[in-house]
Amino acid sequence: xxxxxxxxxxxxxxxxxxxxxxxxxxxxxxxxxxxxxxxxxxxxxxxxxxxxxxxxxxxxxxxxxxxxxxxxxxxxxxxxxxxxxxxxxxxxxxxxxxxxxxxxxxxxxxxxxxxxxxxxxxxxxxxxxxxxxxxxxxxxxxxxxxxxxxxxxxxxxxxxxxxxxxxxxxxxxxxxxxxxxxxxxxxxxxxxxxxxxxxxxxxxxxxxxxxxxxxxxxxxxxxxxxxxxxxxxxxxxxxxxxxxxxxxxxxxxxxxxxxxxxxxxxxxxxxxxxxxxxxxxxxxxxxxxxxxxxxxx
Length: 297
Fold this sequence. Notes:
The protein is an alpha/beta fold. The protein is built from 11 helices and 14 strands.
């Protein structure tokens, strides 16, 4: 019988430590060519406001499809900007296993991937975290990154100061302007719907690590060219060259996929300033969905 798992079932099943480890395994398999996954198909319903995406993936034991809506127009309305459903199947027989809510999976797997990359690329002595953005992804990254770094200070900036203040009060952080938040920070997260750069490379200290997860369209940017000129790691070369304005417009050279570093095919550039540009790929969603399905058996 095909089971339906709502967001609360997903929340009860996913744990950060297991999810972070699973994202490492999933991306290692992806970069090793052991996953069948076309680039996400995006349908523009209304330019700048409404998008619909289809994300299929086949792994050795399961396969699935995520249908995701990206609605920037929902910002500030109480309705999430990202909403999704995931269909999960056995890959050997094709039998359907489950239908589950994908909003929380999208939220958590994005931060879990950043945490996995941060564990490999950031300095072990990282103590200061800067969050540019104060929404769902800022909160998820704050939670996930504490599993891989011992931060003593958290800074937050948002284009909406009231949101930053509320976030700071809830999470024991300090509000700052963007430049002040970034200067001296060891790990930086950009999680915004910015269309123009909000992070300048001149602000970033040598050896810092940046997780850039916003600017989800080919013409949108969060980082300027100077920031993108650092060592660049991505989740998927093919995907970022189609979807990421930060990569496309800066013409930045890609050093490695995250899975190549996880699998030992590329050395982590620990002492260098690094950028992880994440667009989110289907293997992450399907691996997380499999964890949910197994945990609720």
